[in-house]
Amino acid sequence: MDAVTIKDIARALNLSTSTVSRALRGSYEISAETKRLVMDYAERINYQPNPIALSLKENRSRVLGVIVPQIANNFFSQAINGIEAIAYNRGYHVIIMQSHESLEREVLTVQQAMARRVDGLLISISSQTNNLAHLHAIQQRNVPIVMFDRVSAELDAPKIVADNFGGAFAATEHLIQTGRRRIAFVAIPPYMAITQDRLAGYKAALTQYGLPYDDDLVRFVGFQEHEFDPVIDDLLRLSTPPDAFFMAFDRLALWCMTALRKRNIAIPEQVSLIGFTNISVAELLDPPMSTVVQPAQEIGQTAAERLIELIELKEKAPATSTVKIPNTLIVRESTKRKTE
Amino acid sequence: MDAVTIKDIARALNLSTSTVSRALRGSYEISAETKRLVMDYAERINYQPNPIALSLKENRSRVLGVIVPQIANNFFSQAINGIEAIAYNRGYHVIIMQSHESLEREVLTVQQAMARRVDGLLISISSQTNNLAHLHAIQQRNVPIVMFDRVSAELDAPKIVADNFGGAFAATEHLIQTGRRRIAFVAIPPYMAITQDRLAGYKAALTQYGLPYDDDLVRFVGFQEHEFDPVIDDLLRLSTPPDAFFMAFDRLALWCMTALRKRNIAIPEQVSLIGFTNISVAELLDPPMSTVVQPAQEIGQTAAERLIELIELKEKAPATSTVKIPNTLIVRESTKRKTE
DNA sequence: TTGTAAGCGTTATCAA
DNA sequence: TTGATAACGCTTACAA
Hints:
alpha/beta, Rossmann fold, six-stranded parallel β-sheet, DNA-binding, transcription regulation (chains A, B), transcription cis-regulatory region binding (chains A, B), Lambda_DNA-bd_dom_sf (chains A, B)
């Protein structure tokens, strides 16, 4: 049983396809009676317009391309959740693609999305992406882009991010207020904007509370777990070791918890632990770790809303604007007690 | 700058569109010289065939619909990962939709997918889905379906699942071999096939090792965390309480860990804990819990492969086949020591 | 108020 | 070896 077309309706009702088309969209130039006739029949045989034909005609696909480093990642799967919610409400579908943290694959993926004629692109760039030529190229084709989470100053596009500065400030402030003085800050490579912002928040809190900034306490690691343990050991061997660990990245916080457990360092009796992370892990396992929870879903929603606006209004260059969605600080035992 | 079409090439080269079309697909009836000419020019101006026009012509979209209860769930995001990997290799795109564990939304979602003219459907049904009329309907429209993970015997379609029986058997066997005798089994509502299979594996292992089956040790809970704690308390109050907990569902395992910690019940000194779960949580947090790891990604891959086969071969009714992908048992401290 | 015809980008059929 | 034309499903001038 093949799908019903306007032609089928026209034939059955002895009308022309254009009359049927107009009747279905409620055009004023069609008599009420014909309209009813067509509508009823269409309903009865379960007519559904073919979106592919429409896309061809209207030269748009009603599809949003979403490019993320990884789908199987709490943050991104929640963000996608938010994107989908908005997209479906507005009549768009979403095609999700992964760059696998590789610039090369990201470029390919962007090309694929263009080949698929997406109406707009939501992208969170890979950690390797230091060149945005592929994105500039599609902007020249007049396909709107919205960046989220992993954004870059080098592209003139709306950006939706968590308030990384504010979140890091709040986390650091909280540690200070609960009596910690030597706060280690560990993040992923420093060329990413999110890292920069979090580091700035950390520094600002130290300054505001009159604590010195110590380069020895600030470390950057890669994406491999084996790079992590030496960093912790190094920190612990300092002449004045840290009394708190602030892990400015999702996975780092979990690795740190494991590393401290292995070394029998008690949280929070000996050190405090706080991390940027996602609600699911944070809530399910009730870990000994306070958390700056990232508003992943809201970021996705906001980004999708912004993109659809751009697509539908087609205003030229609504200028680069960066929206910061606030984080939520969840305090647990790990950082509650004062130690001094 | 709009996308380049075959017409543009034809005009520029003073050829007809049909010649260009044939040249681009390397048809034998076009002279080598013309071919080169066309190919070179197409390359130079970066021609990309419009997939929408193709879809209309060929009456297929090269899109797979994927319906899952939730995207923001480790198992499903990994499964989607596997699906995407296969799909992109075979030239398909993937549209992901969520049923949010609701039959009503699942029905809507299936209709949407059909309206979008997907070439095939991959579905993991919601926990509320007790009626498969919506799926039968699309089978009648000759759109192939493959079910994965959450499957139902009531639909005649290929099914890809984890080896739930085998995994539960292995977990139970492991607990028995490490000296446990009173093994609690907790799962989600019993009408789901996965629950049935896991329960059967549990029973089979008891039988094989000559242990009695005790109804008191087997419990079913809903999806809400507050339903969970009373069940644990109930089990602990038994005249002979369990010496091991087997949580036959992802979230339950995590809840159980938290519940036991709250009650100061030591793992594995007092009880063993083992659960069905996902690799990411299991690995990252190094929890005191052995795990039957579900091959989420492989399930996704296999399901996608099967679906694409069905789409492309268009064999009629390749019959219902159920593929079981083995689980992996990861043993940790939580179940290692013998207690008796 | 309704119908005819052209067009969106591509391929297939038939002619030249 | 190449070109003209029709067709996929739909919308929209333009005509009736």
